Amino acid sequence: MPTNNDRYWNQYAEVWNDLVRIRDLALANVLGIVSGIIFYVISWYFLSHQGWAAPEKVRGYALFFGILGCLLSGWLSTRWFKAKRELVIGERSGFHEALIQMGVDPEKEMAAIKASPADNQRELGELGIMVDCGKE
Amino acid sequence: MELVAAAVLAALVAAVLFCFIGIVPGTDETATLAPLTLIVVLWGFHPAVVLAWFMAGVVAMQITHCIPTAIAAIPGSTTAVPFIEHCAVLKRLGLPHVAIKKMAAAAVLGSAIAVPVALAAAKLLSPLGATAKAWAPLIFTIGAVVIAYFSSTRWVSLFAILPFALFIHGLQGIASAATGQRVFISIFLGIAVGPMVADQIVLLSKEAAQPIIRTAREEVKIGPDIQTGKRLFPNPLALLTRRQCTTIAWTSVLASFTFTFSPIGLQILLGESLTARIREVYQKSTSAVSIMNSLANATYIAETLIPLIAFGIPLSPTSLGPAAPLFHAPPRFTALEGSINNLHTLLSYQDFVIFSVLGLATGILVAYPLTMHYAWRLCVWVLKKVSHEALIGTFSGLIVVLAYYEAGVTGILIAMSIATFGGMLKKYLGVHIGVQYMCFYASPWIVQHLVK
């Protein structure tokens, strides 16, 4: 039986403008932070204690490995936590129908197009919209 | 010659990386450009290489951010938010491919115009540099008040200046006591990721989280792939109408003279007002998206180059945020503690011309053809494969590693504190990140003169 707590952690939420699962987000954060720090600290230890790098360069190299750890965590996260966006690839909507859906009168639109600059009309012509818009 | 090769290489890496970041929905410029540029600075690359890297990153990101915005009507970055409505209209009309082409062409045109104008404007303004430097601490304080006053949340932003500046000063005291020195990276990045952190902290409280909980996965509707045109690098001028070209030209010039304004504010102000009188839906939407995206590029370029060349201190919203590591990234670059030692002093005017053009050209050469020909396939791949959790996790890791690099555990705690406070200020009170940055830079002056 899932508890209330489980249910909460398995829900979706909108964070930083996109959809995430709360549990996955928490795990991805932990993974990113832990792997970044572990890579940094371990590389720093070996670089400084084993004398693999000049003392003034140790921090710079350790930073490089820390960042490598973060990128590795990102790669693992994309494998473990799938994207939550539900992609629907639809048909291309007709210009005429779309205008009606948006509450725009196609006839008035046609009149406005005819009054617009020539290069704008040419663009619409090339897209096949002059014909599409003018149809009944 | 070696330096030019290194700069081109760095610009290529930045272009590819930021093409990808631009396509990922919702990635904010400050939260991505700033830490990654900071890393390049701290690794000790030559200032010219850093400049080329930044310029290539900016233009690549602001070309490819059009892709999810046009195809899925979700913003590819923060500067894509102003034209989301117009993109949604073009998407409904079955014309997302037209929106992408117009925006990419406008970005190229806007950048091409903004660079020479910004370089000239910087030259004109450079005699004022010494005065600006002498008065910098006071200018930051006045800047905080001015940005707060002109933001959409005027009174609460003005109110927040003092407590926020005091809070930062207190954290600096803790840093000094713990490590013997003041911190920059931890506070700077804490502010940058504040909104991302605030959203996550809210999830720790079931009650507070209710408004952002979603019971089902929402559908992201995208149209079919529409292939048009075979040329690898289509002429941007041919993709825009004559009126769109002239409007982009003069608004991109204007961006250099309003370099202290918020890029998004300028995009909305000019983009909406200049298209308000167009009655025809197609022309209105294509004009709005073109003007706004050209401005996204032009403002970023002008707001980076002008303060950098003329003053050496960050005096524009872009230089306070995404471009800040070019100004101040201790121990390498300093601009805020009296002496200036950054790209302003390390590069000649000629270097600025060569390497900013080099960076931008590389960014455009990678991002523009990619966007023109593979927009749909790239967008579908990113939306399907790259989870938002992975992205947030990676950036959380990067911020923590950079804060640890600067000041150990103290750095992490300071970054966390500032992200919590600043993020909540933004999320619940609408106090803009620009105001928060100005408070950060103004805090020494405020404490010294107003609180003592």
Low-confidence stretches of chain A: none
Order of helices and strands of chain B: HHHHHHHHHHHHEEHHHHHHEEHHHH
Distance between the termini of chain A: 59 Å
Judging from the principal axes of the Cα atoms, what is the shape of chain A?
elongated
- The whole-number mean of residue pLDDT values of chain A reads 85
What does the main sheet of chain B amount to?
2 strands, antiparallel
Strand order of the largest sheet of chain B: 3-4
Number of helices of chain B: 22
Low-confidence stretches of chain B: none
- Largest beta-sheet characterization of chain A: 2 strands, antiparallel
Distance between the termini of chain B: 53 Å
Order of helices and strands of chain A: HEEHHEHHHH
* Percent helix range of chain B: over 70%
Give an overview of the whole structure:
With 136 residues, chain A is mostly helical. Helix content of chain A is 65%, strand content 9%. Chain A contains seven helices and three strands; from the N terminus they run H-E-E-H-H-E-H-H-H-H. The radius of gyration of chain A is 28 Å and the shape is elongated. Chain A starts with a helix and ends with a helix. With 452 residues, chain B is mainly alpha-helical. Chain B has one domain. Strand 1 of chain A pairs antiparallel with strand 1 of chain B, so a sheet runs across the interface.
